[in-house]
Amino acid sequence: MCFSEPVSFITGGILLTGGVFAAWKAYNINKRYLPVSMMPVMAGLQQIAEGHVWMGLNDSDPNMIWWGAMSFILFSWLMWPTWIPFSIYFLEPEKSKRKRALLIFSMAGLVFGLLLYIPHLINPDWVRVSINNYSIAYEDTMFLDYFIPRSLTYAIYIFLIVTPPLISTYFHMRIFGLTIISVLIIVWAFLSYAYISFFCLLAGIGTIHLIYIILRNKCCRECPELFN
């Protein structure tokens, strides 16, 4: 997370705790919620990873910086475009015509994420981390930069993570999609100097809505035969 090491660990701990509680409730209410409950857990782990990036920067430890950054971008580039559509696919009713599209989104997110992430493992110097205005900026080279403009890479990424919740059967999942769009607008307009860090922070906080959906069993509204 931005700002400091303690804030990263505290935020990560809160999201991780809330996500674990949501997973427990999902197990008891309806197991269809389980993949969705993992999103705040993952957001918490991602913030803890960024806490280790702060530790490496504060201690001038390049090894910790690299491992922390690689853990952080594992979620940014690989997990989110894969897991968001998969969790919504898992939540959808069996007869939903949207399930096939959501599964395709998840598989496309996996391929796209691997293309972004694996080259960083092979080329450690592609990951460059710095502090910009009290925030962490990840200035990295991407494999797809050799084939398409960076702006197109970002557009594909946004399409893969925003579209699945927007096409969900469930009202509150569509609202979650609007939350992601709001985060993108705020980061683009005001926080572009550390956009990856800020986006993951604000989107992570946005997963608190998912905890609310599970605790209140909100999907029962659209599909009572599955969630009663």
Concise structural overview:
This protein has 228 residues and is mostly helical. The chain is built from nine helices and two strands, in the order H-H-H-H-E-E-H-H-H-H-H.
Task: Give structural notes.
The protein is mainly alpha-helical. The chain is built from 9 helices and 2 strands, in the order ααααββααααα. It has one domain: Rhopdopsin 7-helix transmembrane proteins (Up-down Bundle), CATH 1.20.1070. Helix 3 packs antiparallel against helix 4.
What topology does this entry show?
Elements: H1 5-29, H2 34-58, H3 62-91, H4 99-122, E1 129-132, E2 135-138, H5 150-166, H6 171-190, H7 195-206, H8 208-215, H9 224-227
Antiparallel strand pairs: 1-2
Helix pairs in contact: 1-2, 1-8, 2-3, 2-7, 2-8, 3-4, 3-5, 4-5, 5-6, 6-7
